[in-house]
Amino acid sequence: MSAVLKAQGLGKRYGRRWALSDCTLEIPPGRVVGLVGPNGAGKTTLLNLAVGQLAPSAGAIEVLGGRPASGPRQLAKVGFVAQDTPTYAGLSVDDHLRLGARLNPGWDGALARERIGRLGLDPSRKAGRLSGGQRAQLALTLGVAKRPELLILDEPVAALDPLARREFLSGLMEAATEHSLSVILSSHLVSDLERVCDHLIVLVDSRVRVAGDVDDLLASHHRLSGPRRDPARLPAGQEVVTASHTDRQSTLLVRSEGAIHDPAWTVGQVGLEDLVLAYMTPKTPDRPALEALR
Ligand SMILES: Nc1ncnc2c1ncn2[C@@H]1O[C@H](COP(=O)(O)OP(=O)(O)OP(=O)(O)O)[C@@H](O)[C@H]1O
């Protein structure tokens, strides 16, 4: 099966400012993808481009082999839960399911009712009277019962307490496994992403800083500590992501596909949260690395 999402030099500009620049990505099928980055990094912009709610200013994007929102078949293949888990406050849970059935050719009514029953949501309750967590679960139910091949969720857990977040994410994982869904979700909460995602994209300042399968990323990043050294003098193939120094000691987070054999370094593993935070740390390319990172 081909890529779920393929972007080539993709960009979106508002006036003179690029909300997303030069984005080249290829997401393999069957992944639960975490899209992470600071406020204003371009996450919503990328997701809106993927569902066809925005048109690119540069480059190209393909989702499940087609142009986003290019027709009914393409629309049926992609589910989208926008930021703030939108529901209609004046409509009941049941009304939402009826609407879902009317609007989606592949609607799985039995799945929707079973999920709502399992969540203990009163079908006659208006969405405006549900809690934030219940509304998020309703929005997820609508997204899953559409039976898309790809479900895209923009910060679905942002407003939820830790318990509701956990319930939401385990429901999402269950749906992804049961229905062989590919999922892309954005979040600021790296610890949540760590639990559910097997592919990661870090966006910073409108650019992709790193992307790949989590296992590969963890295997190719290393924490080096040892006697103080200028990071610019590392061997070719070792890319310094961050560096910090004391008078005598350097600690580097390095990307390297090969193993690090230099006996001067103590080499440690890197966790996903540290990896994400390292890529989110602003780079200062115009100053010598050693001094800038002192
Ligand atoms: N409609 C718009 N008009 C002008 N600028 C916009 C518009 N939408 C987004 N932007 C700008 O584009 C940049 C990226 O915004 P985007 O919403 O994609 O970021 P984000 O990573 O989703 O942020 P957050 O985590 O805060 O939701 C920001 O600088 C934002 O101000």
UniProtKB/TrEMBL annotation:
Pfam families under this entry? Answer: ABC_tran (PF00005)
InterPro entries in the record: AAA+_ATPase, ABC_transporter-like_ATP-bd, P-loop_NTPase
Name the UniProt key words of this record, in alphabetical order: ATP-binding, Nucleotide-binding, Transport
Q: Which residues form the signal peptide?
A: none
What SMART domains does UniProt report for this protein, alphabetically?
Answer: AAA (SM00382)
A single GO molecular function term of this UniProt record = ATP binding
| Residue span(s) of domain ABC transporter | 5-230
Q: Which family does it belong to?
A: Belongs to the ABC transporter superfamily.
The name of this protein is ABC transporter ATP-binding protein
The organism named in the record is Actinomadura graeca
